[in-house]
Design a protein that fits this description.
By secondary structure, the protein is α+β, with helices and mostly antiparallel strands. About 55% of the residues lie in helices and about 15% in strands. A hairpin with a 4-residue loop joins strand 2 and strand 3. It is rod-shaped and about 70 Å long. The model has no long low-confidence stretch (mean pLDDT about 85).
């Protein structure tokens, strides 16, 4: 097996991964919770970029309900962003498992 060829392939894969990571940071996923009462937008990089809350769900006497809706929406948006990230990275790596610390 040609070590030089393997090194070039690894470098090419690393460049593709870096490019894909940058693209994922720009892509957004949107999730709703509570029947559309809370909308959360996150990037493929895992950053929450916006949260919208319907006025009719804001009840000063039931803050816990609103907190639960927001938390649920944020968790779902981050998970959906991670799924998108894994799918895109899997296209590059050919589905090969990467050791801990090398995954994105």
């Amino acid at each position: 097996m040609n070590i030089q060829k393997m090194m070039k392939q690894a470098q090419k894969m690393q460049e593709q991964l870096a490019k894909t990571q940058a693209e994922l940071a720009e892509k957004a996923v949107e999730v709703t919770a509570g029947g559309g009462k809370v909308t959360v937008v996150a990037t493929g990089g895992g950053d929450v970029v916006s949260i919208k809350i319907s006025k009719d769900v804001v009840d000063p006497n039931d803050v816990e309900f609103l907190e639960d809706l927001v938390l649920t929406g944020v968790k779902q948006a981050i998970e959906k962003g991670r799924e998108m990230q894994q799918e895109e990275m899997g296209k590059i790596t050919g589905g090969m498992g990467l050791p801990p610390g090398l995954g994105f």
